[in-house]
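Q: Could you fold this chain for me?
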Amino acid sequence: MHQWTSLLLTTTLAVLPLSACGDSGSAPPAQPGAGGQPSGRLATVLSRGKLVCGVSGELPGFSFVGADGKYSGLDVEVCRAIAAALFDNPDAVEFRNLNAKERFTAVQTGEVDILSRNTTYTLSRDTSVGLDFAPIVFFDGQGIMVKKSSGIKTLADLKGKSICIQTGTTTEQNLTDQMRKRGIAYTPVVFEDVNTTFATYAEGRCDGVTADRSQLISRRTTLPNPADNVILEEVLSKEPLAPAVAGGDSAWADTVRWTIYALMEAEELGLTQKTVTEQSGSTDPTIKRFLGTEGDLGKGMGLTNDFALRAIKHVGNYGEIYDRNLGPQTALNLPRGQNNLWTKGGLLFSPPFR
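A: Sure. Below is the predicted structure, expressed as structure tokens.
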């Protein structure tokens, strides 16, 4: 036993200098957790005084520019929540419309601080494309929409038919894989622009159009006769949609990640846009930590301790955001389903705020 103790002590002493002082040239940059000082993209955004957010701008319910020039949608409100957390002002955001092909370059070059644009979280995008994904804000799946009069009921009925697709998306590869697996020959009609994709379908120049099911439901509301179009029951893929930032900047990724988690956690805690300020006086330790009246969770990221309170006060919790943009009182009327909290049978789950 004495020999093992000596060996352990010797090994420990040998390791300690390495962890304490190492080569300064290879040490990782200091992050807010080591003193609360903003760095990297977080420091840039705070210095600039506004968030630059890349969106679609053409998808009702997610990101859409109205006739009055104002942006609305779930993806838009995610950016407003981050701006509120940073600046106590949900309007401190500049939105930039990006198509599917140019969106990743805009993040990589720093043109936008965050991409909040119905983007599927995949392995290759998380690695070789160089993105860091935030929490999933909408669980979706790919579908196909056809004209009700076509008589098409299943994928098999699309044999020999043409299908409109937007390039630069996961839908193109997914459709190829699914049709190849089933041995169904079809003609892809590919476009870069989403408006052209759906306009071509509306004009009857392709027999069907494929996209995320939520996008199909959204786009159907903009067609001349929405009721004349049906979405096939078959789901072709998993499409977890999440915001993303450039890889390699953990401080900025943490800011985005935990602000989005705050929207989910607030709903679970029963904190709403109307009640959160009053509830900041709660004696519940969980709520006190979450809203920043106790502890230094925000300071550890380089933010104010009330960053979550700011976001909820200005934008609301996830459920409120969902209902405003996608819920039963909207034209989309999307049931929450798997986009509900884990406590209600859904998949939304926030790690603890502690």
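A (continued): The domain at 142-237 is CATH 3.40.190.10 (D-Maltodextrin-Binding Protein; domain 2).
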